[in-house]
Amino acid sequence: MLLVIEAMNKALRRVPAWPLYPLGALPVLWLFWQGVQGGLGVDPAKAIEHRLGLWGLWLLIAGLAVTPLGRFAGLRLIKFRRAIGLLAFFYILTHLLVWLVLDVQIPAQIWADIVKRPYITIGMAAFVMMVPLALTSNNWSLRKLGPVRWRRLHRLTYILVPLGAVHFVMVVKGWQMEPFYYLGIVLVLLVLRLVPTAIPARRRALKS
Ligand code: HEM
């Protein structure tokens, strides 16, 4: 297993992070194209809104998984984390815009929905927390803030990702397990951060 991880790390070292941005944006264009072509059923706006929300959540979970995968499996994905986080922001921002422009449409209704519908309030709170993270996901901000303050700010992830998962739990109608699986994965990934890094230490010892 260690050899496989080492081989993967070696291969990943040669893969640049920048192609993730255009590749990650492609599904959004494809989704809108399908919507225009009539390939998304009777309510394309709702279908787009739902898929963007789901993909945004997947990306948020992927970003949260980078550190535990490094600590417990030795998989080095850290250089891709910024792109994953910024793509998550792009998906959730588009999810929000679709809701505003294609779904609600009436400006007066927007604020009423944010205040009166708890799942919108929670989704909005998660989105608002994503904004400073997206704005500071660049080398200039990292230098300006310094690593300690930057890391402290980016701990907002530990609040916003579970909020995003709770938003999903609240969105679904009836009894469905899917959102609970995501919430469970998010909670496991957060709890793993509290576990001391005994495994990599042993691995380091084995290697030396
Ligand atoms: C981190 C933030 C967010 C995440 C992770 C997220 C994720 C999701 C997910 C996974 C769904 C359900 C998709 C499905 O049914 O397959 C959803 C639905 C939805 N989200 Fe979000 N969302 C976020 C923020 C927001 C925000 C800011 C708004 C609007 C202010 C919003 C409005 C909605 C609406 C209206 C629905 C559909 C509800 C319905 O079925 O009528 N979300 N979201």
Structural summary, described in words:
This is Protein-methionine-sulfoxide reductase heme-binding subunit MsrQ. Residues 53-164 form the Ferric oxidoreductase domain. By secondary structure, the protein is mostly helical. The protein has one domain (2-207). Helices cover 82% and strands 0% of the residues. The protein contains 10 helices and no strands. The chain has helices at 2-13, 20-36, 44-73, 78-104, 107-116, 118-135, 139-154, 157-171, 178-192, 198-207. Helix 3 runs antiparallel to helix 4. The two termini are 17 Å apart. The chain binds protoporphyrin IX containing FE (HEM).
Please report the total strand number as a whole number. 0
Distance between the termini: 17 Å
Largest sheet: none
Bound molecules: protoporphyrin IX containing FE
Count of alpha and pi helical runs: 10
How many individual domains?
A: 1
Spatial extent as radius of gyration: 19 Å
Mean pLDDT: 93
Structural class: mainly alpha
Q: Helix proportion of residues, in percent? A: over 70%
Overall morphology: globular
Stretches where pLDDT falls below 50 for ≥5 residues? none
Cofactor: FMN; heme b
Membrane topology: Multi-pass membrane protein
GO molecular function, one term: heme binding
Family: Belongs to the MsrQ family.
